[in-house]
Design goal:
mainly beta, Immunoglobulin-like, Purple Acid Phosphatase, chain A, domain 2, about 15% helix, binds fe (ii) ion
Length: about 625
């Protein structure tokens, strides 16, 4: 036992020394050394990446008093080989320490095994726990490594990262050099719960490296007596948007003592120039994330945690645009994870309690109704601290205020249907009544009451409200359903694989009328591979044309991720409009296709900066996947 402890601490010290110097602590044979994700009371996710396809095995076991070596007596394997390995350990005991390591066998028979590490499953609801908060680590492995090490030394239960993990989500080097090696000391012991920043560019790399519940860009998890709500503020968060509806629903349902929302962009900020130049004029004090604030205030959110602005700021508790110690929400900007530091406006904001422009992380310790908070700089110095006692601060009368019911859920959430659509409505609590209309008029408690699935056979706008027992009425949920007829297939015979393209050069901020322009080059391609077609870095456009093969009759959903603008036509219909000069952004649309070949036209332009273009689709019998060349002809 003693010898084991000495060996483990020796390894740890060596690892820390390396981390301090900014070098990888991982076995160099792994492309990404094993790390932990999304732990619950009974499960843990372990991921790693190998340079070549290899087998997948995790060895693990509960720690046992008196053992001479880590217990690794259980195994979890996945058949076959792969480079990205993702194993979900299930059936674990809550609040229990486990040892684990991973083993991959390479094609030449060599075995890659990680050093034994540890994790503890999520604690019981009444147990004290702690977590650390990072954000905006970006391209600063030295600072990120130091902060990860300091976080590790806290021995927290887990970590939270509020986005901008890397500087360029599409650049593998950023993940393999700047992000993972410095984080190894932390991520091999504690699960890190992440959310997307703008610098991830919504890239597939993020979704490959992080495992969160679908749809992954937003999710919730419970830890002890706290519930965390993770939101992607790169996507729409305005009232009635998918994420807004989801958050309203989940907050209303939550019985957690502490409610904590995490997203990347600041609802409140005293930063000097991102939201107006405060040295020469005025500031908006925040971003579109302010749209979510009414939900935080309505449902008693305790903390909103974010980054984006590279500095530290803690607000006073805020409620309805004023400091309010009884019912306010505390906003913490912890964007000092490594990105270049930013500055504050020259005059103080009404909401600000503490500001500091320094690389840092934050530490939260929670027991029952008490929360202790610390902000610690990259040198390990404490520079902000407070203790909150919920039972002492919050006014019980105020907390008992009437909760407005969330708008009803509608499943499916609109879109095209063929002959008939079966639509189900649900209220967050069973004792709430749902009333609806189908003729576009606003529903009232006198409108028809929902008693079971609705069968729509015509195009309609469904509007629904939930009404609580005391007569409180929710917002109106409005969802469009459109009856579609199948587009007949083209008679074109199967020809060459891939798509024809025409390549143009010019400077645009919107898609131009390509038909009025003269192409610089043309050819055919099997992939939407910009690098292979472009002849200049910036200022070009491409039109891809040909046919897409629909494998069966049905409704197809196409998604185009592009930087900058794009527009997709299928069977002559505009299906996806993703136009404008913007960072990588996903937009989707639907079309009803009969089995067979349909005209396919994708227009794209690159203004300046980064570039990206991917097309995915989902259809009858298959989930969302990249549109592979096998389905494209011209
Ligand atoms: Fe950032
Ligand atoms: Fe950011």
């Amino acid at each position: 036992m003693k010898r084991l402890a000495v060996v483990l601490s020796g390894l740890t010290l060596a690892g820390l020394a390396l981390a301090y110097l900014g070098f990888a602590t991982a076995d160099p044979a792994f492309r990404v050394a094993p790390y932990l994700q999304f732990g619950t009371q009974t499960s843990m996710v372990i991921l790693w990446e190998t340079e070549e396809p290899a087998t997948t095995r995790v060895e693990y076991g509960e720690s046992r008093y008196g053992d001479e070596a880590p217990n690794l007596s259980q195994t979890a394997t996945i058949d076959g080989t792969r480079t990205m390995h993702e194993v979900v350990l299930t059936g674990l005991k809550p609040e229990t320490k486990y040892f684990w390591r991973v083993v991959s066998v390479l094609p030449d028979g060599r075995e890659l095994a990680s050093e034994p590490s540890t994790f503890r499953t999520a604690v019981h609801d009444s147990t004290a726990f702690a977590f650390v908060l990072y954000s905006d680590t970006q391209n600063n492995p030295r600072v990120w490594g130091r902060l990860a090490e300091l976080g590790f030394l806290e021995r927290p239960n887990f970590g939270v990262h509020a986005g901008d993990l890397v500087d360029r989500g599409g650049d593998l080097e950023d993940w393999l050099v700047d992000f993972f090696p410095p984080a190894h000391v932390f991520m091999s012991r504690y699960p890190l719960y992440t959310i997307l920043g703008n610098h991830e560019d919504d890239h597939d790399n993020y979704y490959r490296y992080f495992h969160n519940p679908p749809p992954e860009y937003y999710y919730t998890f419970r830890y002890g007596n706290a519930q965390f709500f993770m939101i992607d503020t790169n996507r729409d968060v305005s009232e009635g948007s998918e994420q807004w509806n989801w958050l309203e629903w989940e907050l209303a349902k939550s019985d957690a003592t502490w409610k904590i929302v995490v997203h990347h962009h600041p609802p409140y900020s005293s930063e000097e120039n991102d939201h107006g130049n405060s040295w020469t004029g005025s500031t908006t004090y925040g971003t579109h994330a302010r749209d979510l604030v009414p939900l935080y205030e309505q449902f008693g959110v305790d903390f909103c945690l974010f980054g984006h602005v590279h500095m530290y700021e803690r607000t006073w508790p805020i409620y309805e645009g004023a400091v309010n110690q009884q019912n306010g929400v505390i906003y913490i900007n912890a964007g000092g994870g490594g990105g270049g530091l930013e500055q504050f406006a020259p005059t103080r904001s009404w909401f600000s309690a503490k500001v500091k422009s320094v690389h840092h992380y934050a530490y939260f310790a929670i027991h029952d109704q008490t929360l202790q908070f610390q902000a610690i700089d990259v040198e390990g110095r404490l520079f902000d601290y407070f203790e909150l006692r919920k039972d002492a601060v919050h006014d019980p009368a105020a907390r008992a205020r009437v909760i407005v019911p969330p708008a009803p859920r509608v499943e499916p959430s609109g879109g095209l249907f063929l002959d008939a659509a079966e639509v189900r409505l649900q209220a967050v609590f069973e004792d709430m009544a749902i009333h609806y209309t189908l003729d576009g008029t606003p529903p009232t408690p006198q409108s028809p009451r929902y008693t079971g699935p609705l069968r729509l056979t015509e195009t309609a706008t469904l509007k629904a409200i939930a009404v609580s027992r005391d007569g409180t009425v929710s917002r109106v949920r409005a969802v469009d359903f459109r009856r579609a007829t199948l587009r007949p297939p083209e008679r074109a015979a199967a020809r060459r694989p891939g798509l024809a393209y025409r390549y143009y050069e010019g400077r645009w901020e919107q898609l131009p009328d390509f038909e009025a322009l003269t192409p610089v080059a043309s050819g055919s391609t099997e992939h939407f591979d910009l690098a292979a077609i472009k002849q200049v870095e910036d200022g070009y456009g491409i039109v891809f044309e040909g046919y897409v093969e629909a494998p069966a009759d049905g409704i197809y959903t196409f998604e185009v991720l592009s930087d900058d603008g794009s527009r997709l036509y299928v069977a002559g219909e505009p299906v996806v409009d993703n136009d404008g000069s913007h960072s990588p952004r996903r937009r989707e649309g639907q079309v009803a296709l009969a089995a067979g070949r349909h005209a396919f036209r994708l227009e794209y332009f690159e203004d300046h900066g980064g570039e990206a273009l991917t097309v995915s689709w989902a259809g009858p019998g298959f989930d969302r996947q990249h549109l592979r060349p096998a389905y494209l002809t011209h």
